[in-house]
Amino acid sequence: MKALRRMRQDWVLYAMLALPILYFVIFHVIPLYGMKLAFQDYRILGDHVWVGWKHFNVLFSSPAFASVMQNTIIISLMKIIFVFPIPIALSLLINEVRSSKYRKYVQSVVYLPHFLSWVVIAGIWISLLNPTEGGVNLIGNFFGLPSVDYMTSKDHIRWVFVVSEIWRSAGWDSIIYLAAIMKISPGLYEAAKIDGATRLQQMTFITLPHLYSTIVTVFILNLGFFMNAGFDQVFNFMNDSVISVVDILDTYVYRIGIGNGQFAYATAASLFKGVIGIVLILGTHFISKRISGKGVW
Amino acid sequence: MRRLELSKIIIYAILFLSTLAVLVPILNLLALSLTAPGRAHLMSGLDLIPKGFSLMNYELLLSNPLITGSIVNSVWITGAGTLLNLILTSMAAYVLARTNFIGKKLVLLFLIVIMVFEPGLIPEYLLVKDLGLMNKLTALILYKAINVYYLFILMRFFQDIPEEILEAARIDGAGHFRMYTRIMMPLSKPGLATLGLFYGVFRWNEYFRATIYISEPSKWPLQVVLRQFVVRKDNTSIIGNQNNLFDSSVNFDFASLQAGTIMIAIVPLLILYPFILKYYAKGALEGGVKD
Question: Which residues belong to any copy of the ABC transmembrane type-1 domain (chain B) (predicted)?
Answer without folding.
Answer: 71-275
